[in-house]
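Table S7 (text form). Paired inputs.
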Amino acid sequence: MPELQRLRPDHAPALLAFEEENRAFFAASVPDRGDDYFTGFAARHAALLAEQATGACHFHVLATEDGEVLGRFNLMDAVDGEAELGFRLAEKATGRGLATATVRELFTLCTTAYALTTLRAAATLTNTASQAVLTRTGFVPTGEKALLSGKPGLAYVRQLTGQAPAGRAL
């Protein structure tokens, strides 16, 4: 069973492989990261770890027992109990409920480790899989339009206070 892990320096090789192997799959529904992301990956990874150390962001990977990265689950711009959720799952890991289960697991970390009470998220209009995960995990559309690297999307919000245990309705 894959495990949600806080981003560490030793995740870099597996994380780069994950991004390279799934680049075309991701680009079908979210804006492509561009070639510079891959050529400057080591510096970018170090910058993420430095940002995480400040407490402004909390980066996670979903990894198998042998260290393969199946997904990324990030909490960005954590301020005053709120953060922005972003996630992506490897193509070969889709359709098994992993994204939904991992987002629910992240809710526990949000409230117990990161003192977060509200999550925001956005998904492009073409990313119906992410929209479904957000809806299944209790996010509601805000009615605001979002632009994600120039692509139209929907904004969502999820209150974490008073939530039921992962996977259970209130």
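Next pair, protein 2 of 2.
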Amino acid sequence: MDRLHTGLARAEEALPGFRVEIVEGSVVASPVTPHHGRTIHEVWKCLEGQIGQAWALISGVGVPFDDDNEFCPDLAVIPAPEAERNESAYLPDLIELVVEVVSRGSVRRDYEVKPRWYASRGIANYVVLDPLAGHCVTMWNPGSDSYRGRGTVPYGPPLTVDSPLGKLKLTTDRLPVDPGSRPQL
């Protein structure tokens, strides 16, 4: 798996402005748009003051599950001592909360593929922020192949994620919505 991860790191260097992952055995390069980056920034600001000093946020760092799946979550919360190691990849077992921001090319991956993998590794909470639809999807109570709990909330009101880290509040009224999309539930 180290050789595979090294290859992904080189691919990201060769493709600036793209996030590179391995999903179901395929290398996938997704362009990062301003709305994508702004969403990550806004959520980072919301979470940073709430997670406490024992935890840290990481972004765009490899999380290998197996030879066919290595994701780079938009945001993930891991123990602070692990983040201090400043690695380019972390085990999924370290993650308590993962956040993905949907892009036009990632809808299936973010809503179908990744929840299966995140749940199977016991990641307590998965949040999908969707600027294409103007809503957030929260998933909790991980099972062996999916999350047993799921809720959808439109952008606007605050979102509370009841996590092992406590009740985390995300403001959604400043999250950008893609201009070609209409908010929907």
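Helices lie at 2-14, 34-48, 80-84, 107-120.
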